[in-house]
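Hi there,

I know you've been waiting on this one. I reran it after we fixed the sequence typo, so this is the corrected version. Both the input and the resulting structure follow.
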Amino acid sequence: MTLEANARYAEVAEANIAQAGLADRVELRVGHARDTLPRLAAEDAGPFDLVFINADKRSNPEYLRWALDLSRPGSLIVADNVVRGGAVADPTSDDPSVLGVRRFLDLVAAEPRLIATAIQTVGEKGHDGFAVALVTG
């Protein structure tokens, strides 16, 4: 299962899924995660072994709640872009994306069902990073 908000990106993803020979195994749903995640829960979808969060950063805390609801012990939750060029560590930042990532990381740290770490990456786009959380209970 994969979710994509942008219809054009969904077309590209579908083509890549088909080219990889996985069209019969991967379901792609188009729409904002705020809308599609409640539908997944209502359908009793999951639990999922891997949840990759790479959407609007201000909503990461909400996506974490859904990820926990749709996972089980042993699942991994991975969130991209959690360093944001160091802005997440800047206490003066009022950027909504930075605040969303910061709140997400606070929730991960406080969640007793998770063991997590954040990893900084450096590349041609500068430095950023991702968080990896193991659901333990």
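Quick highlight: The mean pLDDT is 94.

Best,
R. S.
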